[in-house]
Amino acid sequence: MSDLFPPFAPDPNEPRKRLFKPVPFRMIAPNIITLIALCLGLWAIRLAFEGRYEQAVLAVIVAAFLDGVDGRIARLLKGTSRFGAELDSLADFLNFGVTPALILYSFVLHELRSLGWIGSIVLAIAAALRLARFNVMIDDPNRPEWKKNFFVGMAAPMGAMCALLPLYLSFLGTPIRDSSVAPVVLIYTVGIAFLMVSTIPTYSGKTMGKYVPRQWVLPIFVLSVAAFGLLISFPFEMLALITVLFLLTIPIGVMRYRKLERDDAMRGADVQPAPSGVEPPPGA
């Protein structure tokens, strides 16, 4: 038996095998930002339950800003991954679906009891459906390049910002929390949910800023600083203004989308090959 199991002394200089392969930090950094945004969404729910609605709204706004940053950082660092995409989608559902729905219910929709709760559920489910459709559409290889400038329906972060418009107005002195205004808020909330799940195109702005004319560089710097200063000094006035302007520009985006769609269809008709067996006309 001793021959079958000879004594074995491990080599002290032999390198130890790693259980897990090291992951580059560029793959982790975007996910850290996503997790911070997720924590802000959960924190906003707690703030709403404690009645601190202003801080809750600001937490959602910061989460929306981080949502726009993490994807760009991932592409800049070449750190995109399937895990990051799934984590981002789950965080978006909570931050821009569940959180604004609970904030609105705690703020004013509870006045309508079960009807207000149903309106909150509709908003949260609409965000989930919108994100699921977005995840499916980005895998479409036949999607024209110009369609990347548009979302199909309202994006979930913008939907959350628009859904919180009643709170912006309330912070500015409008009596939104009155029970007589609750039905109006309910109709508005369901309308935002409809815009998220609809096929109405809205401008995405993803390709905006790739190339800027040289003469516009300094004016853009000045306008950016002015906008940031106004947003810090008058946050809810600016949020209400941005929301209203965005809602008013939806018809402009629809008309632009339809025009590009017609132009694309005409280009497709021009390059369509002739049927087989049919001779081209003389002089072609």
Automatic annotation (TrEMBL):
Keyword Nucleotide-binding listed: no
Single GO biological process annotation from the record: phospholipid biosynthetic process
Predominant localisation class: membrane
Domain of life of the native organism: Bacteria
Domain CDP-alcohol phosphatidyltransferase C-terminal: residue ranges: 215-251
Any GO molecular function: phosphotransferase activity, for other substituted phosphate groups
Compartments reported by the entry: Membrane
The UniProt record lists the keyword rRNA-binding: no
Membrane-traversing stretches: 25-45, 51-69, 115-138, 150-169, 181-204, 216-232, 238-257
Family annotation (InterPro entries): CDP-alcohol_PTase-I, CDP-OH_P_trans, CDP-OH_P_trans_C, CDP-OH_PTrfase_TM_dom, CDP_ALCOHOL_P_TRANSF_CS
Keyword terms, alphabetized: Lipid biosynthesis, Lipid metabolism, Membrane, Phospholipid biosynthesis, Phospholipid metabolism, Transferase, Transmembrane, Transmembrane helix
Membrane topology, as annotated: Multi-pass membrane protein
Identification of the protein by name: CDP-diacylglycerol--serine O-phosphatidyltransferase
Origin species: Microvirga vignae
